[in-house]
UniProtKB/TrEMBL annotation:
Trichome birefringence-like N-terminal domain residues: 43-94
Pfam families to which the protein is assigned, alphabetical: PC-Esterase (PF13839), PMR5N (PF14416)
Residue ranges annotated for the Trichome birefringence-like C-terminal domain, each copy included: 96-359
Localisation per UniProt entry: Membrane
Protein family per UniProt: Belongs to the PC-esterase family. TBL subfamily.
InterPro entries, A to Z: TBL, TBL_C, TBL_N
Keyword Amino-acid biosynthesis among UniProt keywords: no
Domain of life: Eukaryota
Signal peptide interval: 1-20
GO-annotated cellular components: Golgi apparatus; membrane
Main location: membrane
Protein name in the entry: Protein trichome birefringence-like 37
The organism of origin for this protein: Cucurbita maxima
Keywords per UniProt: Membrane, Signal, Signal-anchor, Transmembrane, Transmembrane helix
Amino acid sequence: MGFGVVGVILSLLLVLQASGFVSVQQANASGFNTLKGRKQASGCNLFQGRWVVDPSFPLYNSSTCPFIDAEFNCQKYGRPDTLYLKYSWRPDSCTLPRFDGVDVLKRWSGKKIMFVGDSLSLNMWESLSCMLQAAAPNAKTAFFRRDSISSVFFQDYGVTLLLYRTPYLVDIVKEDVGRVLKLDSIEAGKAWLGMDVLVFNSWHWWTHTGNSQAWDLIQDGTTLSQDMDRLVAFYKGLTTWARWVDLNVDPTKTKVFFQGISPTHYLGKEWNEPKKNCNGESEPLTGSMYPGGAPPAVDVVNRVLSRIKVPVYLLDITTLSQLRKDAHPAGYSGEISGTDCSHWCLPGLPDTWNQLMYAALLTM
Ligand SMILES: *[C@@H]1O[C@H](CO)[C@@H](O)[C@H](O)[C@H]1NC(C)=O
Ligand SMILES: *[C@@H]1O[C@H](CO)[C@@H](O)[C@H](O)[C@H]1NC(C)=O
């Protein structure tokens, strides 16, 4: 079957879904694959709510966290405003438990938590490392960074936070013809086995073209092509990932999260300020709705998660992050030139993603 056909099927599904004919998996607080009728508890949607100023935020100070990369270290690189550090997420129908880092360290004693994906995984991994380090400032840590794998080990508690960098989740293999993006292969997955928690994410790199595209050819089954529709490619790659999870994850041993699509703020027209991007933004949007709507990749994630057999908890962070046009590094991203409206300052928004993951884990 050519990707044209799959494209048509996928578009059809997306249209049906948009028109309400196909129900999308809801990320309820208890919401493990609720489409499949798995257990529901409180019924609170943690991801529906608004941002409020909370004087007890941020959860840590960047100057005392040794794990923050320059590109996320906005205060160190001169960001003048601080209000963006003070926002806390308020779900409409329940209270988000306050993050208790010592509780996490004790609960996770002897456990391994791995983030798998692109630099948004890096962003969330560094955030969690800082949140735990702030809770136990005198705890001994061992830290290492490599190309594909990095880790922070909290020695006194035996907790390991790992990061596996693989922006597409599926493999890129160097062959005679060039770098081949293999839509149906995840050899790298061997390194993800034996974890207690796995947190996956992918999307941004699927959109890259030109010099920032990490592959030369794309392989779908036995067909090699120069390019294809990027949403269809993402759908196929993510479907391979779902198959990997179903074949390799024992849900009694490993909890699986999908870190939902992280939005960018390059196009002010999405929030009705067409001349702007994230640069100079110092406050979130008010309310619970993002005028620009959801990015199309969200539908792909929902489709794939609705069919996976192993329970995967969707951290449905897209909308709440879309409201945070103020939370990007913009020009305060270390030595990197240009305006970064894609990653997030630390402390900052990814701390809330981790707080939500903590809340979800408490209900499991
Ligand atoms: C999510 O929770 C609400 C409130 O309990 C419930 O009405 C809804 O059916 C749940 N969603 C799904 C997909 O189960
Ligand atoms: C972080 O700590 C430094 C050093 O104590 C202090 O000068 C700075 O104001 C703090 N930053 C924030 C945002 O509270």
